[in-house]
DNA sequence: GATGAATGAGGATTCATTCAT
DNA sequence: TATGAATGAATCCTCATTCAT
């Protein structure tokens, strides 16, 4: 008998048995959230707007998500998972050993394609409360991607100091996000043009660090 | 102190004094706004918070600005003006003809310095409601900077097609903003490291387009 | 005179300068809150209901109180202060030395009168989230009264052990609150009858501990 | 399918024939409700929380109870019934004739014991929306107890006027509830101490009305 | 011009209750 | 019967903006 006010939230990870309908609703809500996040950004997105977009009442939204943040987190996780499932195999030893131009093509093309199909991904990653400061709830998503980049760089050039590797990773990811925003902000030929620019930029940035030639995995 | 009842006599005859006092208020409010924008971003910044930070009442704020947007616009314009005044002379023909590395140093160093001293500048430029889509009120500021970059590129390489020049400009500016965000997000040695990374990135991106060697202005 | 130093900025910023209108509004809101608390109890009282009762918009309420709790706290403090100002002098040495019946009359009559005029006082003291567990925000009010009772008992019978004194205090206060609730819940002759019953109960409870005869203060 | 053992005096033939399983469910729900009422009080208890505590869905709860109030009513009735079954025999003529101290022991000890084991009882009786005003749904429970007290007093002292008897009853019950709240709010030695205080208080209050000596039932 | 007061629509979230499977 | 889904009004609170002094 020690707690007076706070409990209620039975977080005990009891995996809720959801009906098929509920699973559908969740997807519907996440789709709606993706729409709204893209339209207005995470911070300005209102749960009511998401519910409306999904064609349900506010209460229904809260049947599946405890709060706004959880929607973004779940959306981010699903997108991340889907991206890994679909394009997670690009970091094979063979690919990493390709000449830099081909390596970038191999990595970026599916990545860009995925993001064009799922622009909410970038919206989540970029949602910040202050310039440069990510909302906590999206940091994990952000980090999970950055980790993969870091690993790629580390494998490609194991001689980099941890600091340089970290800086290179962060900067490369920042460039990618910046270019991706341009790509998503345009269509058709313009979009294609920015794809080229992004690759050029990353090539120019990474070439001195990773080398342009193909390499073979070290024994 | 000692100009107490001077105002009462005539409301219109002393516009200078009123302006001076008003100007002080405006600067006070803009300083406060800069603070708050940096802390919370433009969208999340509340006019009440700005007024509080400035030590005045909300009503006073609205005596000088018709709405929240106008504050950002005025702040942006002033920052832009100050930047031009302070660092507007870097785009001289001699500078533009420098080897790329020196050119970047010449341009970026004061630019970065200015932005470190005035982080609100980036906050404004980055404040977006959706990824990649700037709030209307900041587009002008954004464009004015981009125009200068475009001009620099055009002068340095007059053979570029307008389209390529536009793409290069946009991308270069995007890279700059991305790097600047990293720079402002760190301090001390880390910050310096990201300055280097940003320069590296821009060098790598621009070298193929602008050439690395010094050039002399064409007749 | 001398509104001349208008430039003075109050750096302290904590003590809000309120206009007379605001002070009036606060009283109005507290009166409304008292009404609503009495009608529905603290927990069920809604801030919107309080604002409506006061004839203002919800926003106005929040101009003066940061949240619902603060309303109750301020109301409690004001009532407590007023009670002390009005009836705080009953615990004089002479009174404490009176025969028990007269002592109770002396203490209870103004106390009851005050509570009949301000029934919100009891509403606050009794507001609990679980039976027997007071809401934090009202504990202070509760304790401040109990302390006075404890002191009275201690002066009247200095030989009581601290434990017995504490138990007696708590129980006597509980009896008082229980009787007061009955008193406030009735009117006219019924009310008077319960006043008598309450005094009887307290007399019967306290007589063995405090003695029925008058005592003189010990040196 | 034998509905044969219809010893139903239930003339109205409620469609509510409960099966064993339903009965179990009901008990489950009432137990959960008791828990939640004790934790948060009646008003703050949510039907969802009760269902969760019972491990069933909200829909199931509403299959057995038409609304939240009905849960409290049924819980109260069951507790009342159990109390009567277990301790209902204390009001025998012999007991009523005991000396007051023993009479109180005889009545209060099992009463307190029962309430310690079933704290929801007090929670229900005390759940009020406004100080002193019981929620309708619990008035009946409240009255049924008070009636028994009234009867006891009437038997013990038949000369009391109906008014005095009513006042004494109400006050005595109020004292009991107040003391009981203290008892339930403490544990161990403290709890025992408050048991003593409660008995002292009731003794002091009732002695003048009921006399302290044992009496024999009048013919 | 300066102030604090006032507004009210809108934000996130909850909850008693009903519905559909 | 049991379940989870669905509802929508109500909750506390915020904020850009306007008003009165």
UniProtKB/TrEMBL annotation, chains A, B, C, D:
The keyword DNA-binding applies. It holds the Pfam family TetR_C_15. Residues 1-23 are annotated as: Disordered. Keywords: DNA-binding, Transcription, Transcription regulation. Residues 46-65 bind DNA. Residues 23-83 form the HTH tetR-type domain. GO terms for molecular function: DNA-binding transcription factor activity; transcription cis-regulatory region binding. Gene3D superfamilies: Tetracycline Repressor, domain 2. This is Regulatory protein TetR. It comes from Streptomyces violaceusniger (strain Tu 4113). The lineage of its organism: Bacteria, Bacillati, Actinomycetota, Actinomycetes, Kitasatosporales.
